[in-house]
Specification:
The complex is a heterodimer of chains A (about 325) and B (about 280). By secondary structure, chain A is of the alpha/beta class. Chain A contains 10 helices and 16 strands. Chain A has a single domain (about 5-300), classed as TIM Barrel. Chain B has a domain at about 110-225 and about 250-265: Rossmann fold, CATH 3.40.50. Chain B is about 20% helix and about 30% strand. In chain B, the strands form 5 sheets. In chain B, strands 11-10-9-8-12-13-16 form a 7-stranded mixed β-sheet, sandwiched between helices. In chain B, strands 1-7-4-5 form a 4-stranded antiparallel β-sheet. Chain B has about 280 residues and is of the alpha/beta class. The chains are: A alpha/beta (about 325), B alpha/beta (about 280).
Chain lengths: ~325, ~280
């Protein structure tokens, strides 16, 4: 069984990525991610300057998922070298995530991120809880096209575009990004959401509104991957509620070729990466699948191998 | 072994009401509220305390009682803590947790010492409580600049009087107890006299305690404080050393692990993740 995969030219030991925003702001954590068996790390999204983010509470768990309104905290690209360097030294494949206020800023930040030595950039055009950033830009196909095109002009490394699920037509966004030259799509970021505490009559999150990730997001993001697979040609990277190997298999059969894991670290810890790899290997052995590329988009192609489990062929 | 957030419990604030607020100094007070989950938590773990409309901050859980009541000893030093002290008894707060690792007490009854400075004495008071219950001989060293700044002073004097711990207060100016620093008192008692030493307080103090215990060959743990956001091991705000999340693998780290934390006693990250010297 071979878990190796190649996405936009990046050769990964396995298709599991640490999702942006989860334990990828410090060099120490990104280096640890390598030791814990990730295929690649997507960094915390960086803007131009240090940002403290929103006031706490920045997270609150709800049934089936986690709401967060971190507010894009981080040291900013200008101070990020001291975090990227230890990650690269540890052998990490690093996808540098950036967020900006307009196409020119995205292009500048992506170029700065590239200069830090990252292997690809991911455009966070889909954060649902930072005013003026993210999904405020990324939910308009024309604006998104402009952002991606500007970034493609500015960098040589592959460009991944992370889409918002807060849209009535994710394929319109995917097609716009593809037309502008994106090398891959990531589906999806979090769903805009809120939690209210009745006993104090107010929203729990400091920012009031946040983004829903975790198990509740999975069927939504899975449908986005499904739709994108039918409409676009670039690789689709899945993100949303991946907790175990069967989640990965669902996304693979919907059409994804790499898989970002985030919220699961809250409940499963770092072990989630080796657990999923073991689960995938066991399933592939039983199903006689040598590489996950054999099942990419399999669910689109009519009846599978039901009733012939474990037989040759 | 890491302790990921329990899937059985939603990680969201549980609303409770501050029943009592007792001033310790002009800007320190101990509040008490009911929360059975925290009351049963291992000593050394912490909770997130939400003052609705203001902020949510990490606090080391203080001594508790059998009726499910919990204490927190708070210094008014920011929006949230100042507002909480101003609002006092009757305030509704949200608490979540317990989070993190607790103190590892010796398996057999032995002699243990808790060294606290500032509000760090709060988790020490709870550690002392649990250590006494587990049959250990307990010493508590508490330090402040002067007598009027000794936190949990009355509580610890009471516990001393009932024989559940030996209280060794220290003041920089000699107005009460030992004239000098907690670390000097620890040295006077002899680090080797204890089977385990636990520290919580200003980081330079903890660095000294850890060094003294390392030299004496005594098991030692220190409880670190860093900027915290999620407290459930995903946001990377409180990561130290080679990737230790203080909210999960900490806040209590033993001397061996602390040897690998280059920034221990040196620096800490702010809300934006930038490192600053202490």
């Amino acid at each position: 069984m071979d878990l190796r995969t190649t996405v936009t030219g990046l050769e990964l030991s396995n298709p599991l990525l640490l999702a942006s925003g989860i334990l990828d702001e410090t060099g120490a954590s990104m280096a640890r991610a390598v030791r814990e068996g990730v295929g690649a790390v997507v960094t915390k999204s960086m803007g131009p300057a240090p940002r403290p983010g929103h006031p706490n509470p920045t997270v609150v768990e709800v049934g089936g998922g986690l709401l967060n309104a971190m507010g894009l905290p981080g040291p900013g690209v200008a101070h990020f070298r001291e975090e990227i360097d230890p990650a690269l030294a540890a052998g990490a494949t690093v996808v540098g995530s950036v967020f900006g206020g307009d196409a020119q800023e995205y292009a500048r930040l992506a170029a700065d991120m590239e200069a830090l030595g990252v292997h690809a950039v991911e455009l966070n055009v889909s954060c649902p809880h930072a005013k003026g950033y993210g999904s405020e830009l990324g939910s308009d196909p024309a604006v998104l096209h402009g952002v991606v095109a500007a970034v493609k002009d500015a960098v040589k490394v592959p460009v991944w575009t992370k889409l918002t699920p807060n849209t009535n037509d994710v394929t319109a966004l995917g097609l716009a990004a593809q037309d502008a030259g994106t090398d891959a799509l990531v589906a999806t970021n979090t769903l805009k959401a809120i939690a209210i505490e009745p006993d104090v009559r107010m929203p729990v999150l400091g920012n009031k509104v946040g983004g829903l990730s975790g198990k509740a997001l999975k069927p939504v993001a899975l449908r986005a991957v499904w739709d994108l697979h039918q409409k676009v040609d670039v690789p689709v990277v899945a993100s949303g509620g991946i907790y175990d190997a069967r989640d990965v298999l669902e996304y693979a059969m919907a059409g994804a070729t790499a898989f970002q894991v985030g919220t699961a670290l809250m409940h499963r810890g770092w072990d989630v990466f080796t657990d999923i790899q073991e689960g995938l290997t066991a399933w592939m052995e039983t199903e006689r699948v040598g590489n996950l590329s054999e099942i990419t988009g399999a669910a689109h192609h009519g009846p599978g191998r039901g009733g012939r489990v474990g037989t040759a062929g | 072994m890491e302790h990921a957030a329990s899937p059985a419990l939603l990680q969201r604030p549980r609303i409770t009401t501050v029943e009592r607020l007792e001033w310790e100094t002009e800007r320190h007070a101990t509040v008490r509220f009911h929360d059975p989950l925290l009351a049963e938590s291992p000593s050394g773990t912490f909770c997130m305390v939400w003052l609705p409309g203001v902020d949510e901050v990490p606090m080391g859980t203080g001594y508790t009682d059998a009726a499910g009541r919990v204490t927190l000893t708070i210094e008014g030093k920011g929006d949230c803590t100042n507002a909480l002290l101003d609002q006092g008894a009757g305030t509704r707060v949200g608490v979540r947790g317990p989070y993190g690792t607790g103190f590892r007490l010796p398996e057999e009854p032995g002699r243990v010492c808790f060294v606290g400075g500032g509000t760090g004495i709060a988790p020490m008071s709870r550690g002392a409580q649990q250590a006494h219950a587990a049959g250990h001989d307990v010493t508590v060293i508490s330090g402040a600049r002067s007598e009027d700044l000794l936190l949990l002073h009355d509580h610890l004097k009471d516990r001393h009087a009932t024989g559940s711990l030996r209280y060794k207060p220290c003041t920089d100016d000699g107005t009460f107890g030992f004239h000098g620093f907690t670390t000097q008192k620890l040295a006077e008692l002899g680090e080797g006299a204890f089977d385990a030493v636990y520290a919580c307080g200003p980081e330079p103090m903890m660095v000294r305690v850890v060094e003294q215990c390392r030299d004496a060959g005594t098991f030692c743990e220190a409880s670190l404080e860093r900027y915290m956001k999620c407290a459930v091991g995903v946001c990377d705000a409180c990561t130290v050393g080679d990737g230790l999340r203080l909210c999960v693998e900490g806040p209590v780290l033993d001397g061996e692990r602390l040897a690998g934390v280059a920034e221990f006693g040196v620096g800490h990250r702010d809300a934006a993740g930038l490192m600053h010297p202490w």
